[in-house]
Design a protein that fits this description.
Layout: H1 15-26, E1 35-45, H2 55-66, E2 73-76, E3 82-85, H3 92-111, E4 115-118, H4 135-144, H5 150-157, E5 160-165, H6 177-194, H7 211-217, H8 233-242, H9 265-271, H10 285-293, E6 299-302, E7 304-311, H11 320-331, H12 333-350, H13 359-367, H14 372-388, H15 396-408
Antiparallel strand pairs: 1-3, 1-4, 1-5, 2-3, 5-7, 6-7
Helix pairs in contact: 1-8, 5-7, 6-12, 6-13, 6-14, 11-12, 11-14, 11-15, 12-14, 14-15
Length: about 425
C-alpha cells in the first residue's frame, strides 16, 4: 500500500497578506438585498422560571431543538442560551416568517419538556454557570478572567437580538457601505436605549437599564471597541483587528490552547511569537480568520454588518421589532437619511470616542429613553421606520407590532427594562427579573 505523505503545514502569513485578507473578508459590497437575524434565548422551567436548570435538562432541550427540521441554524451559547440564526432572506417577510415558523416548532418541542424560551438581555438567575466545555470557551474564559468578571457574565448570561444587513454599495451615497458603517455606530446608542431589557439591581451596573451593554463594554480594553470612524471602513477595521490582542492560539494535538499575554495579532505577524513568547508558531491565514471571530465590537463586519448591541426582547414577537426597525432604517433610502441626520447630530454633541465606551452609549445603557436627547432621536427614527415599512412590503402584523412597541415604550420615553419586574416563584435574588 503506498505511503501517504503528510500534508505540508500551512504557510506563515505576512503582514501585507493579513491586511489584504481582512480587507477581503469584512465588507462585501453591492446592492443591499439580504436581511438576517440571530435570536438568543434563555431556556427556563415553565413552572419555576427563577431556578437555574440542570445541565441534563438544558442538554435535552438543545437536543430537541437540533432534531427539528428547521430553516434556521441552531447553536448553543456557553451558558446554555439557545440561538436561532435565520437564513439570509431577500425580504423582511421572508426573514420574519421563517424565524416565526422555526420558533413555533422549537417552543412546542420545549413545552413538551416543561420548558419555555424567555427573551431577556441578561439572565437574572444566579449563580451563572457555564454549560459548554471546549478549548475555545476554556481559553476565552481564562483570557477574560484577567480583566474581571464581565467576560464570564457575557459568556454565561447574556442574550441578544443580532440583526444582519448588507454592507451596501461600494459607491458613496445613502446606501453606500461607508455611510451604512457609520450609521450603524451612530444609530447603535438609540437601539441600546430603545430596546434595553437587562435591568440590574446590584453590582457594578446597578440601576442600569442595559447591564448587558455594560458587560460587553468592560470585557477588555479593546476587543469590544468600535474602530475610529474618521477614515475608510476597511482600513479602520483592519487596523482595529490586527492591533487587538490575540485571545488564544489553537492546538491540533489535544493540548490546551495557548493564551498569550499582551500579544496583538500584528505583533504575532511581525515576530512569529518569538519576542516574549518563545515557542509560539508563526500565524497562518486560518489563525487570522479565527482571530476575527474573537472580536466583539458593537458592529462586526463579516462581509455584511452584524449589529450586536440589542438586548433580547420579551414576548413571543418582541424580537421582530428591532429586526423590522433596523431593516427600515438601513434599507429604505428616505428612512436611512433621516436616521443618519438625527443620530449624527446626537453623536456629535457627545464627542468622538469609540462606542460602546463613550458618554452617549453609556447614557443609553444606563438611562434608556429617559434621557431626553435619546428619546427625541428614538421618536424620529421609529417614526421614519413606521413610514418606511409599507414601502418595504411589511405585513400588517409586523407593522402593528412595531406600532404597539412604539406607543408603549418609545413615545412614552420607556424601554422594556422599565416594565415592572415579572414575579418569579423562587425567593431572594432568583425572584428578581
Amino acid at each position: 500500500m503506498p505511503q501517504v505523505s503528510p500534508a505540508p503545514p500551512p504557510a506563515p502569513l505576512s503582514e501585507e497578506q493579513a491586511e489584504d485578507l481582512v480587507h477581503g473578508i469584512c465588507f462585501k459590497t453591492g446592492p443591499p438585498r439580504l436581511l438576517g437575524a440571530e435570536l438568543e434565548w434563555l431556556v427556563l422551567d415553565a413552572e419555576r422560571p427563577g431556578r437555574p436548570l440542570s445541565p441534563e435538562r438544558l442538554r435535552a432541550a438543545h437536543d430537541a431543538a437540533h432534531a427539528l427540521p428547521l430553516n434556521s441554524r441552531v447553536t448553543v451559547e456557553p451558558g446554555g442560551q439557545l440561538e436561532l440564526s435565520s437564513a439570509p432572506a431577500t425580504s423582511l417577510s421572508g426573514c420574519v416568517d421563517g424565524l416565526q415558523s422555526d420558533l413555533t416548532a422549537v417552543r412546542a418541542a420545549l413545552r413538551a419538556q416543561g420548558l419555555v424560551l424567555e427573551g431577556h438581555g441578561q439572565d437574572p438567575r444566579v449563580p451563572h454557570r457555564r454549560l459548554l466545555a471546549s478549548p475555545r470557551y476554556d481559553a476565552m474564559e481564562a483570557y477574560f478572567d484577567r480583566t474581571g468578571p464581565a467576560g464570564r457574565a457575557m459568556m454565561r448570561a447574556s442574550a441578544s437580538v443580532q440583526v444582519c444587513v448588507d454592507a451596501g454599495y461600494e459607491e458613496p451615497g445613502v446606501l453606500g457601505h461607508s455611510r451604512r458603517w457609520r450609521l450603524a455606530h451612530l444609530l447603535g446608542a438609540v437601539l441600546v436605549a430603545a430596546f434595553a431589557n437587562s435591568p440590574a439591581y446590584e453590582g457594578p451596573y446597578a440601576d442600569w437599564r442595559c447591564a448587558r451593554q455594560g458587560n460587553w463594554a468592560d470585557i477588555d480594553s479593546r476587543r469590544s471597541l468600535a474602530p475610529p470612524l474618521d477614515g475608510p471602513p476597511r482600513s479602520g477595521w483592519t487596523r482595529q483587528a490586527l492591533d487587538t490582542e490575540v485571545m488564544c492560539v489553537r492546538s491540533d494535538d489535544g493540548a490546551p490552547w495557548t493564551i498569550p499575554h499582551g500579544l496583538t495579532f500584528r505583533d504575532w505577524l511581525r515576530t512569529g511569537g518569538d519576542a516574549g513568547h518563545p515557542g509560539l508558531r508563526s500565524p497562518t491565514a486560518e489563525d487570522l480568520e479565527y482571530h476575527l471571530t474573537t472580536l466583539f465590537p458593537p458592529v462586526r463586519p463579516r462581509g455584511h454588518l452584524e449589529l450586536r448591541m440589542i438586548d433580547a426582547q420579551p414576548g413571543d414577537d418582541g424580537w421582530l421589532v428591532p429586526v423590522a426597525v433596523v431593516h427600515a432604517l438601513f434599507d429604505d433610502p428616505e428612512a436611512a437619511e433621516t436616521a443618519y441626520r438625527v443620530t449624527k447630530a446626537l453623536a456629535d454633541a457627545y464627542g468622538s470616542a469609540p462606542a460602546p465606551r463613550n458618554p452617549l452609549w453609556r447614557a443609553a445603557a444606563r438611562h434608556g429613553l429617559t434621557d431626553p436627547e435619546l428619546r427625541a432621536a428614538a421618536k424620529t427614527c421609529f417614526r421614519a421606520a413606521a413610514e418606511a415599512l409599507p414601502r418595504l412590503g411589511a405585513s400588517d402584523h409586523v407593522r402593528e407590532t412595531v406600532g404597539a412597541f412604539t406607543e408603549r415604550f418609545v413615545l412614552r420615553g420607556r424601554c422594556p427594562a422599565d416594565d415592572p419586574p415579572r414575579p418569579l416563584p423562587a425567593a431572594g435574588k432568583e425572584a428578581r427579573r
